[in-house]
Every structure is written in structure tokens, then in C-alpha cells.
Amino acid sequence: MSSAPADKKSADSVIKTAGRVLEIFEYFRDVRGPLSVREISERFGYPLSSTAVLVKSLATLGYLTYDSDIRSFFPTIRIAMLGDWLYDAMHVGGHLLSLMEDVCRETGETAMLSIQNDIYSQYVHIMPNRNQVIQLNVPVGTRRLLCWCGTGWAMLSQQPDETIARLVERTQLRLGKDPIAAKITQEAVAEQVRLVRKNGYALSNRTVTDGAGTIAMALPVAPNGMRMAIAAGGVADRLLQNRAHIVKVMAASIKKSQAGQ
């Protein structure tokens, strides 16, 4: 079950080389093994010559290492060290990965970590549950409208009604004549936020992707002010059937994470 990014047009504004560097790093994360220049070139459709120059440059800078025996590259610890401070900055106790692992394992669904980015909820980490035959396949970096998705409603529930109203207005203005703008009314968003505040979680049932849904909960606001939400995503009918269990697991996992266990 796949889902295309909601902001595909914005990809054109990314400087090509910067985008390629990040795509290569993310590819290494998915493969978790060495990659040759040709494998990277064929994966993304990059010209072989420019791929070789880019990868060799990253190796020169110390982000990749080259194994001449297998003619492949592999990331160095320098990449990991770039973001090691972020877990503490984003989440007290730094247990985000453990939290996601718990949610993924105990719910049997894909665990997704999302942040508020302008008028969007953006997925920054995805942990699929490999035991499910049908999974929710959402690429890292995918953005959903904050006012019209489960993780967005969860994060909005922490904010004053006045702030939410302004975000709805900004979203409508940004969407212009897009047909989805007609659904994102002040009343519709307020109702979703009310349900989150009442129930403690947000339920997105086929809101964005046909046949798919998410159950989302907001995380405590980070010390730097960043807002985040964690979600279990998968087949909508399966989520609805197991909703009580999933909600219980997610609440317990967040509590455990906050306690630093």
C-alpha cells in the first residue's frame, strides 16, 4: 500500500546536488550494506559519471569509505554523529527510536514519527512492521496538510484555538483552488481537534490514502519548541478492528519513553 508525497511539486525547488546527497544517505539506510557507484546511479537514474564524482567527494570528506575489493562505498560513523544531538533536543530522554520500536512491535503496524513543519505534518522517520503482508508505505520526508491528517490533528490539539484558526486560514490561502480546500473548514478541523482532546488520540480513516489510516498521538513539545506526533499506520479496517489495543499500546509506550525506561 503506497502513498505519494503530498507536495511533489516542491521537489523541483530542491538544489539537485543537495537532494542527491540526502537521497544517497537514505538509500544506505534502507539497504544497510555497501553500494557501488553503478547501483546508486541505477537506483535514482543519475548519470554514472556525476554519481561517481559525488560519491568520491563524500568519501574525501569522510562521510563514506571505499572498499576496493568489492568496489563499493559504505557510510562512516561521521554521518551518525551529525544528528546524535537531535534526540535530546527533540525529546526529553532521547528515547524516540525505542518508542517507535515499541509501537511497531506491539501494534503490528508501521510506526511513523512526524513533526510540524509550517502548515504540514512531515514524516521524519518510518519503521515498517515486516510481519504485515500489506503495509503502509510512506516515504520519509512525505508531507501531509497539518489540518487534514491524523498526526496533524494530534499536534494541533496541543495548541490554542486561535492558533489553529490561523493555521486553517493559511492552509486555505496556500491551497487556493485545490479541491481539498473545500474540506478544510474551520468547523471540520475544530471537530477533529475536539475529538483528539476528548479521546487522547487522532483517527485518520481513509482521509489521505484510500484504504489506509493512522492512529496518532502527540508527543510532549520538545525543549526547542518542536511539535511531534507518533502514529501507527496501516490498513484502515485493521486499525479500526484493533483500535482499543493500539491506543493502549501507544499510550503506554509514550509513558515509558517519558520515564526514560
UniProtKB/TrEMBL annotation:
InterPro entries: GAF-like_dom_sf (IPR029016), HTH_MetabolicPath_Reg (IPR050707), Tscrpt_reg_IclR_C (IPR014757), Tscrpt_reg_IclR_N (IPR005471), WH-like_DNA-bd_sf (IPR036388), WH_DNA-bd_sf (IPR036390). Residues 15-77 form the HTH iclR-type domain. Keywords: DNA-binding, Transcription, Transcription regulation. The lineage of its organism: Bacteria, Pseudomonadati, Pseudomonadota, Betaproteobacteria, Burkholderiales. Residues 78-261 form the IclR-ED domain. It holds the Pfam family IclR_C. The keyword Transcription regulation applies. This is IclR family transcriptional regulator. The keyword Calcium does not apply.
